[in-house]
């Protein structure tokens, strides 16, 4: 996790928006993988830790966004603010999605029937697809 954080810091300085979005996606994937691994070995504590890590990462990203807004020149204020606000909104959406995922996972733990798990997996895939689509829309802008 520390490694990812450092890479994020380096990436953001070089290329502005695209890298941050990609990094967030990577983070999501990593966290999801971690979630799956934790679910196999039934330990609630690890899950909670992952949630906490996610929240921390999100807050860090938001702070970075704000810092960047402050650091930029006043000449391009109108153009930069809109894009950053959209990214902020995306971050919030991501957080909401992840919370939904957590809930799904908890449900899966409660009822470990094959049909239910399959349904949940399908839902997750759909969520991921939606997120990617949103990202693409932002990238196009």
TrEMBL record:
Identification of the protein by name: Uncharacterized protein
Taxonomic lineage from the root: Eukaryota, Metazoa, Spiralia, Lophotrochozoa, Mollusca
């Amino acid at each position: 996790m520390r490694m990812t954080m450092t890479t994020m810091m380096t990436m953001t300085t070089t290329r502005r928006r695209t890298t941050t979005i990609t990094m967030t996606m990577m983070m999501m994937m990593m966290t999801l993988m971690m979630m799956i691994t934790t679910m196999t070995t039934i330990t609630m504590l690890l899950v909670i830790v992952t949630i906490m890590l996610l929240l921390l990462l999100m807050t860090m990203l938001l702070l970075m966004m704000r810092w960047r807004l402050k650091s930029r020149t006043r000449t391009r204020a109108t153009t930069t603010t809109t894009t950053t606000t959209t990214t902020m909104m995306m971050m919030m959406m991501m957080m909401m999605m992840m919370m939904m995922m957590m809930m799904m996972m908890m449900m899966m733990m409660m009822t470990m029937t094959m049909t239910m798990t399959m349904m949940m997996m399908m839902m997750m895939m759909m969520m991921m697809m939606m997120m990617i689509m949103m990202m693409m829309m932002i990238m196009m802008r």
